[in-house]
Amino acid sequence: MKTYFIGIDISKDTLDVCILNDSDEKELAFKVSNTVEGIEEMIALACCSGNDSSHRYCFENTGNYGLLLASLLEERQLLYYQVPALEIKLSQGIQRGKNDKVDAWRIARYAKMHEQELIPSALSEEVLFTIKNFLTYRNFLIKVRTQFKNEKKA
């Protein structure tokens, strides 16, 4: 079975994704929004490359920007690695050029090269519970905001 390494460069609003196969060939590269819908779209696109058990998601530990991604991967019991950005940078040596697309490729390549040393990440139950509560509250606030906007128009 082929293994797929999915490198994700996280920013506040978007996720740049690069999927490499175990032969180091780029299967797919794309960008999605850093929202529940965007992450679900990313998982669906990654599933086209093989079954979920053959996927290795890897992304830099960016604090709050990566929490949603980590919680959704955790919820679906998908294997992922959160790696310090400095560790990835030091492993690459001196590099020229930098953009999000290239960073996603470098992260995927890092995951492939260091698969044996990487330890799968996991959120604690308490953190996961807190994130779910915040997401529920966020959705509630979005609905309330929409109601206020609609009342203002009327």
From TrEMBL:
Gene Ontology biological process: DNA transposition
Residues annotated as domain Transposase IS110-like N-terminal: 6-151
Recorded hits in Pfam families, A to Z, give: DEDD_Tnp_IS110 (PF01548)
Q: Which domain of life is it from?
A: Bacteria
> What molecular function terms (GO) are annotated for this protein?
DNA binding; transposase activity
Q: What is this protein called?
A: IS110 family transposase
